[in-house]
Amino acid sequence: MSGRVISWCAVFLVLAPMVAGAQALPVKTAKPRDLSEAERAAVELAAAYLQGGPAAWWERLAAGSPIRRSGREAALAEIAARVGPADGATWQLLTPGHADPERAVFGVEYASGLEETLTLRLVQEGGWKLAEIRTTVDRRDGAPGASSTPADPAPVEPAASRPAAALPFANPYFTLGLAALVLLVGALAALALGQAGRKGLAVAVGAVAVGLVAAGLVWTGSPSRLARSAGAAGGTGAAAGAEAVAAHGGLSGFAALAPLRAALASGSDRAEIEKRLLVVPGDPHLREVQQLWRAAYLLGEGDLT
Questions:
Q1: Radius of gyration over every alpha carbon of the chain, rounded to an integer in angstroms
Q2: What residues contact 59, with CB distance under 8 A and at least 6 apart?
C-alpha cells in the first residue's frame, strides 16, 4: 500500500469513532418556559391598554396601589407618563430565564422609535390587579422615583433645632484639636527662632499664634453664625424637599412629564417636543428623567453631540 493510502486509513480510523459518538448524542431542543399566571394576566392588561389607553388600567389597579389612592385624574396622568401612548406602540413580552410569580416585563417601542422597558407587579385581589409600574428611569436605591410606591416624606426639621455639631468648626473636639495644633506649631516656631537669637521675632510668632487661636474660638463659637450656617445648610434641603413633594403630588412619580412623554413617543411634532423640553421641572429627580428622555430623543435624531 502506498503511503497516501495508509495516511487516509489512519485519518478514517481516528475520525470514525468521533462521528459515531456525535451521532449517538441526544439532540436537545430549546423550549420556551411556561408563562406564569401573572405574565398571562399582564398580557391581558397590555391588550387592554393598547385598546383603551390609561383609562383601561384604572379599574385594574390594586386597592393598595398608591397610584389609585391619588385619585382618577392623577392616576391617569401617572400611568400615561410611565407607560406612554398606545397609538403606534408595539409591545413585546420579555421572558427572563426564571419567572417571577408576581411580575411581568414588556419591551415597548413607540411610534417615534424610542423604546421603554416596563416591569409590572401584579397581586391577587379577586383576580390579578396592577400594584406597581416601573420603568428604566426608576432609581434602584430607594430615592424618590425608585418605585411607584411613595415613601412618607421625612419631616423637615427646623433649622434652629438642628445640632450645631453638624458643622466641623462647631464641634468642640474639632475646635480644641485645631487650637492645640496651632499652639504647638507656634510654640515650636518661637522656640526655634529664640535659639537662633531672634527673640523679638519669636515673641511676635507666639503672639500671632495665640491671637489666631483666640479669634478662631470666638468666631466658631458665635451663636448667630452657627444659626445662620445651620439655616443655610438646611434651608435649601427643606425647600427642595417641599418642592419635590409638591411636584409629585404625594407620589414619587412622573405625572408632570406626561405631555413630554406623549410628544416624544409620537415624534411627529418636533416643535412641540422642543417646547416641552424647555419646561424644566423644579424637582431634581424629574429633571434627571427629562434629561434621560431628551438624550434618548437626540440619539434617535442622530445628534451625538
A1: 34
A2: none
Say which residues have a Cβ less than 8 Å from residue 111's Cβ, sequence separation at least 6: 85, 87, 88, 89, 265, 266, 267, 268
pTM: 0.56
- Nine-digit cell string for 200: 523679638
Cell numbers representing residue 121 in the block? 407587579
Bridge partner residues of 106 (DSSP): 93, 118
What does the alpha-carbon distance between residue 256 and residue 253 come to, in Å, rounded to a whole number?
Answer: 8
Give the pLDDT confidence score for residue 105 in this predicted structure.
96
* CA–CA gap between residue 263 and residue 111 (Å, rounded): 10
Cβ partners under 8 Å of residue 121, min gap 6: 102, 103, 130, 131, 132, 133, 134
- pLDDT score of 237 more than 70: no
Distance CA(257)–CA(251), nearest Å, equals: 13
Which letter does DSSP use for residue 60 in this model? Answer: T
Q: Which of 55-64, 102-111, 126-135, 156-165 has the lowest mean pLDDT?
A: 156-165
Q: How many CB atoms lie within 10 A of CB 68?
A: 21
Whole-angstrom distance, CA of residue 288 vs CA of residue 282 = 11
The enclosing H or E element of 133 equals strand 128-134
